[in-house]
Automatic annotation (TrEMBL):
<dbReference type="GO" id="GO:0000139">
    <property type="term" value="C:Golgi membrane"/>
</dbReference>
<dbReference type="GO" id="GO:0005783">
    <property type="term" value="C:endoplasmic reticulum"/>
</dbReference>
<keyword id="KW-1133">Transmembrane helix</keyword>
<feature type="transmembrane region" description="Helical">
    <location>
        <begin position="38"/>
        <end position="56"/>
    </location>
</feature>
<keyword id="KW-0472">Membrane</keyword>
<dbReference type="GO" id="GO:0006621">
    <property type="term" value="P:protein retention in ER lumen"/>
</dbReference>
<dbReference type="InterPro" id="IPR004932">
    <property type="entry name" value="Rer1"/>
</dbReference>
<comment type="function">
    <text>Involved in the retrieval of endoplasmic reticulum membrane proteins from the early Golgi compartment.</text>
</comment>
<feature type="transmembrane region" description="Helical">
    <location>
        <begin position="12"/>
        <end position="32"/>
    </location>
</feature>
<dbReference type="Pfam" id="PF03248">
    <property type="entry name" value="Rer1"/>
</dbReference>
<feature type="transmembrane region" description="Helical">
    <location>
        <begin position="93"/>
        <end position="111"/>
    </location>
</feature>
<comment type="similarity">
    <text>Belongs to the RER1 family.</text>
</comment>
<keyword id="KW-0812">Transmembrane</keyword>
<dbReference type="GO" id="GO:0006890">
    <property type="term" value="P:retrograde vesicle-mediated transport, Golgi to endoplasmic reticulum"/>
</dbReference>
<protein>
    <recommendedName>
        <fullName>Protein RER1</fullName>
    </recommendedName>
</protein>
<feature type="transmembrane region" description="Helical">
    <location>
        <begin position="117"/>
        <end position="134"/>
    </location>
</feature>
Length: 170
């Protein structure tokens, strides 16, 4: 089992595509069966929680305020550079999300988890919770000037083969 997990670590896009398909299967099952709204709501809350942990820095800048109230993050070129380190790394985020969908899918096979509830209230409450949580997170990111997303290191390409062979023939 661990061998397969280790093999899938470098395949980020493939892992998330698998998760989206898996999550779509769960959602289709929940919609077609017209039930398990509490399980779906709990899954949504958990996914929101781990997403916020994914967006949050490991060391909270709010705790690094000096005595004068100024942030101790580097703001000038001569200060120390600190890279953005996540509280929840991407692979653990994917793994936790996949386990959560698996547990949710497992719960849909048992009627004991199909608790009758008026689902529009859960949807509205989840949307409100999502908006308020994301607003707070975005304001935190703006206040402490960090961006949790990076698209990797810039890669410089060398000469292409045609120009390399043309320069060799001269």
């Amino acid at each position: 089992y661990q061998h397969w997990l280790d093999k899938c670590v470098p395949h980020v896009t493939l892992r998330w595509c698998f998760w989206l398909i898996y999550f779509a299967i769960y959602m289709i099952r929940a919609i077609l069966l017209e039930g398990w709204y509490i399980v779906t709501y709990a899954l949504g809350i958990y996914l929101l929680n781990i997403f916020i942990a994914f967006l949050t820095p490991k060391i909270d800048p709010a705790q690094n305020f000096g005595a004068d109230g100024n942030c101790e993050l580097p703001t000038k070129a001569n200060e120390e550079f600190r890279p953005f380190i996540r509280r929840l790394p991407e692979f653990k985020f994917w793994y936790s999300a996949t386990k959560a969908v698996s547990i949710g899918l497992f719960c849909t096979f048992f009627d004991i988890f199909n608790i009758p509830v008026f689902w529009p209230i859960l949807v509205m409450y989840f949307i409100l919770l999502f908006l308020l949580t994301m607003k707070r997170q975005i304001l935190h990111m703006i206040k402490y000037k960090y961006i949790p997303f990076s698209f990797g290191k810039i890669r410089y390409k060398g000469k292409d083969e045609k120009s390399a062979t043309n320069s060799e023939s001269l």
